[in-house]
Write a structure and sequence with these properties.
This protein is mainly alpha-helical. The protein has helices at 17-27, 30-43, 47-77, 81-85. The longest helix is centred in the last third of the chain and has 31 residues, at 47-77.
């Protein structure tokens, strides 16, 4: 009896859950991770890795924009980071 096997092209092979964990850890490395993120986002051979790298990059941009907005608000209000950290 023939088995019905679905043939998936190499560029569309799915990533395992541990693969996503590994890529997240790789992208979290400060300088090397950012370089790998750009390489995978711009020229990844696997579409799933490429899309994951792009989404990770978008989340990083959103985080940076939010941090800048919060820093501007704190600067306008005259709040210093050192005054927030001090414990009494």
């Amino acid at each position: 009896m023939e088995e019905n096997k679905i043939i998936i092209p190499e560029e569309y092979t799915p990533i395992s859950a541990w693969g996503y964990v590994g890529y997240s850890l790789l992208f979290a490395i400060p300088i090397v991770g950012f370089i790998c993120l750009l390489v995978f986002a711009l020229s990844g051979s696997n579409k799933n890795v490429k899309n994951y790298a792009r989404s990770y990059f978008c989340v990083m941009l959103i985080e940076i924009i939010l941090c800048v907005i919060i820093a501007i608000i704190c600067a306008v209000m005259g709040i210093e980071v050192s005054s927030l950290i001090q414990t009494r």
